[in-house]
Amino acid sequence: MAGVNGDRKGKKDDNGMGTAVDFLLSNAKLVLGVGGAAMLGIATLAVKRMYDRAISAPTSPTKMEPSGKRSWEEPSWMGSSQRVLNHDMKSTVSRSLQTLPTTSNSFEPDCMRRATGRGRSAVGETDLLRARMRLSLQEKLWEFYQERVTIPAEEQATARRAALDICAELRIFLHGKLPDMPLREMYLSGSLYDDLQVVTADHAQLMVPLTLEKNLWSSVPGEDTIMNVPGFWLIRRENLEYFPRGSSYWDRCMVGGYLSPKSVLEVFEKLVAGSINWPAIGSVLDYVIRPVVPSETLTLEVQYKTDRHLYVDFLPLLVMDDGASLIAKPHRLAAERHENLWRQSFRVAETARLRALDQEDGGCRCACLKVTKAVCKLNPALARLSASQLTSAILLLSEKEGDWTQEALADRFLQLLRSLVGHLEAGRLPCALIPKVNLFCELTPVEVDELGYTLYCSLSDPEGLLRTPYSD
Fold first, then answer.
1. How far is CA 373 from the centre of its chain?
2. Alpha-carbon distance 419 to 305, whole Å?
3. Given a cut of 60, is residue 451 above it in pLDDT?
4. Which residues form the Mitochondrial dynamics protein MID51-like C-terminal domain (predicted)?
5. What does the pLDDT read at residue 136?
């Protein structure tokens, strides 16, 4: 413990925190014994270091390593946003110090590793503490998985049946109302059909594939345009001199020489939201059906039980010759400026790759994804992290880490949190399938700050992410 006390030498006043720590440690041996005092000292030092980093961030620039790179311990967002580490956040950190736990369950293994002494007994005791911590987190993760993440099979089946009923009604209506509209067969998709939906069965996607004439339309990658947006595409009208406007059914949705996903959605919105008598259909199906307004896409809300709601996204889809899937979902931050851009969807390919990796080694990647998705769904501060972002982060982590056994879930979960912190610090999360695509490009700087702060703080108490307001 001498190393702990020695840290006070030569430091300026820290509002009494160091004095309180020294007094606590000096009396710990009398009450807890040598072993207990060591455990408390390590835990206290870990929390004190987190406190020091937090209170120093807004008033001092990010610490730099000798090489000029920012230290991972001091992320670049610290102090970059007025909403990060404000007075309320510092008060929260101060309150947490007043209720300092005396067990190791609430502390992240890396903090313990940095704080441990060099003696043989200290190393053995720290290894034991780390093992206990991993076991505790492992148990809580699987308990969370069973109680909060997994959706009962009956609930999933009922939601799928409701989605299928809606799909059938839309198919009948569109074929009857516009028989000349060139569409392929509609189908249902999404995490509800991949067994990757979490918490509640409340979302499905109705894919509506459009048919385009190959000699009249061509695709242009977003990075090859002046907009330079990888992951988005333009669909350009070709051969207008030989096939004038009107030669293609979808010419009516052309804006500035390109097929506009916004115009396509407006066509379907007039039909789906304005022409279909949903109250009458709902009474026949014993559902309550209504369009969601406003919505970035065309979405139907289906109440199929008193306490059960299902949201069905109506997504026009283009499938390119190379297999790329483009959906009519606008760019979140620049919908007006990029209204002609079609979004490339990686969900099917990402999910297939994730499952293939798990099948090869009996891994826990899908379980880790579902746990993290549930954490983000139940914690409003993390709601901006999407399934695609989490899936790519796990796939990237799989390239570096080989142990994905069921027993390694806790380690991989912590590692995933750390990797997300690193990606947020860099402001870039490469798509695992196409690295030039930045999956964080639609987050605002403030959202990056808040996500980074929340995840960074969770590293000292990962179990806190599992304690949601709805877990009682």
1. 6
2. 40
3. yes
4. 155-350
5. 86
List the structure tokens of 348.
């099917």
Query: What tokens does 118 get?
Result: 């060099």
Mean pLDDT along residues 125-146: 78
Give CA–CA dist 115/117, Å, rounded: 7
Which residue is it, tokens 């994730």? 354
Rounded to whole angstroms, the Cα distance separating 468 from 456 reads 18
- Residue type for 46, please? A
Pairing relationship of beta strands 342-345 and 325-327 according to DSSP bridges = antiparallel
Q: Cβ neighbours of residue 303 under 8 Å, at least 6 residues apart?
A: 287, 288, 289, 309, 310
User: What are the pLDDT digits (tens) for 46-95?
Assistant: 444 455 544 444 443 333 444 443 333 344 444 344 434 444 443 443 34
Report pLDDT digits (tens) over 329-354.
988 887 677 789 999 999 999 999 99
Lowest-pLDDT range, 59-63, 121-125, 439-443? 59-63
Nearest one of 140, 67, 70, 75 to 105, comparing CA atoms: 140
CB 369 within 8 A of CB 391: yes
CA distance 33 to 24: 13
Residues 6 or more apart in contact with residue 376 via CB below 8 angstroms: 382, 383, 385, 390
Categorize the per-residue pLDDT at 194 as very low, low, confident or very high, splitting at 50, 70 and 90.
very high
Is residue 32 within a helix (H) or strand (E), and if so which, with residue range?
helix 17-56
Contacts of 311 (CB under 8 A, 6+ apart): 202, 203, 204, 292, 299, 300, 301, 302
Helix, strand, coil shares, percent, the chain, to 5: 50, 15, 35
Structure tokens at 47: 């929390």
Tokens standing for residue 161: 């049946």
Name the residue with tokens 């069965």.
Answer: 201
Question: Are the C-beta atoms of 298 and 206 separated by less than 8 Å?
Answer: no
Q: Which two tokens stand for residue 346?
A: 């990686």
Q: How far apart are CA 4 and CA 201, in angstroms?
A: 50
C-alpha span between 359 and 315 (Å, rounded): 30
pLDDT digits (tens, 9 = 90+) for 91-120: 443 343 343 333 333 334 443 344 444 444
pLDDT single digits (tens) 232-290: 999 999 999 999 999 999 999 999 999 999 999 999 999 888 889 999 999 999 999 99
Say if CB 421 and CB 459 are below 8 A apart.
yes
What single letter denotes the amino acid at residue 453? Y
Angstrom distance (rounded) from CA 417 to CA 440: 16
